[in-house]
Amino acid sequence: MAKLLLYNAGGYIINDHFHYFCKVNDKIIKKSYKILFYLLLGLIILPSLVYLVVLIPGVQKSVGKAITTRLSEDLGVDISIKNVRFYPIKKLVINDLLIKDKHQDTLLFISELESTIDSILYSSRHIYLGKITANKLKTNIIKNNGQNNFQFLIDSLSHQHSKSSIWKYAVNEFRLKNSAVVYNNLDAPNSNSAFNANNIRLNTLNMTIDRLKIFEDSLAIRIQHLSCNEQSGLSLINTQGEIGVGQKGIGIKNIDINANRSSLKLEYLKLNYDSTQQLNNFIHQIPFDLKIKTLTADYRDLRYFFPQFPLLNEKIKLGGNFSGTIDDLKGRDIFIYAGTNTALNTDFDIKGLPHLSETFIYLNVKHLNTNIYDLAKISTLNKETKDFKFPANFERFGNIEYSGKFTGFVDNLVAYGLFKTDIGDIKTDLGIKLTEDKRMIYSGFINTTSLNIGKLLNTENDLNKITMHVSIRGYRVNNKYFNAYIKGSIDSIDYKNYKYEKIMLNGLLANKRFDGKVTLNDPNAQVQFNGKLDFEKEIPEFDFTALLKNIKLDKLNIAPELENSSLSVNLNSKLSGKSFNSIDGHIILENGELISSGKRFSLDSLLISATQNHEIKTIKINSDLIEGELVGNYNLQSLPNEIYNKFSIYLPSIFTT
Asked: Residue 131 forms beta bridges with which residues?
């Protein structure tokens, strides 16, 4: 058997030394393996032991106490928890989490709160959570004497803690299941509407937030889904959006809300404040900036808020930019679509809300398109005008376009603008004032351009277009009584296919009564009228004088058969009667002259008087040509034809049959 011998530099054999070295080294290696084995075994067993220890109820209770203490310190509020189940590096389950307000009433209760844990960084005091699920959450928010019962939480969050003592939280997803929210404003008066913003009760509330970040003084969330039912019957089917809350404001963007039959798409809402205490004076101290892409509202949903809202087949659409504060509100590029044919594009400034009587309004109507059918339904929204009925013939205005401005206070407003309708144009410049006794006083100017008044009054065979410029001053008490002093000119009016020109008006128009002067200075007719036409009384009255000069009967299409005719006469009338057949009074004709086809007929005076005693009528005629009396029971409407036939016998050169 061969044997290996090793020699050193001096020639000595070292085999025994080498053998000893190898033996020692082998022991070290074996010992190292054993240490490594026990180390690995400890790394496996120790977490398992810790995991098992944490599952011990007493330890779980300690963990729950630590969590309660941590949340209580961060939120500055007393919090109680029934029990905690903590699964290390996995999840945390809390049962019966309860937060009470300062009056020891329930502010927040969660039956079960479950959260997965991604990581905890002690060095930066940052906790990253996976998904949090709150099942059967109930919260009760109360406002009383100007204070919310959660204000102490906001004050705590806004309190400047030491940055080293505050933990930061980040949540990947938060879910709310089968929850309920109650809000009750004890300071507010009762409401008649189904939905009461001061008494809200939400149930079957489900929500998913796919991003939630909590910092030392702010909160940021993104809502992926929200649905609930309100006690009024209004339901939110699906809501999405992003919300941020901080010490200096609230930001909301990309909101998409879908209710029963309505929807809201909101691009952003920004609220700015120096202190959360300003929220208690929201109307005056909280400036905001709001942009609504589209609000689409069905009348059935609007009735939750406005019980008397009219039935509209088409949904209302609204959008635009709103900014300022509630008491100094501005609107730009506002659009509204309503009814079958109503579209509004406007800007506005409103200052003084909520005190309506002290509110100043500037409304710039860039364009309004509507019709009487839609306006009638819109008028029912106001309790003062809900019983107002437009005359049936107003439908003949057809499509109505308007552009103009409104400036002033609610009870003292100046309105000027231009109406374009299917039957002509109307331009207005009116001041309107409402008095304490509910009178509406108005003054200003009304101008029309080719307004087809005949179509409006259904007299197109005789009366047609009118162009006029008049001033108006008066008042209106109710739908049945108005009073207006009118002064101005009618540039032209079409009657029986003739355009009359240069008519001056100066008089009082009250309900169905006119008292004043009318002057016509047309190339084919000159007329001066002064007196009263009263259709307001049960029996109409006519008391006036009229001077007629150079009336061209043929050219005016009054008597086309009388060629080259001219009529001049002074007329004095004082009559009354419901119809021509029941007329009572007298007519005096003086200085009459009729010229036709070169022939002249003169009349110095003619008095016609009519009286009635039951069914017996008496007509007396006195003139320089004829005198007579007609007594009996006859029909006056057929009498002119009989008189015409008689005159044709005695004056055939003038009257022909």
From this structure: 173
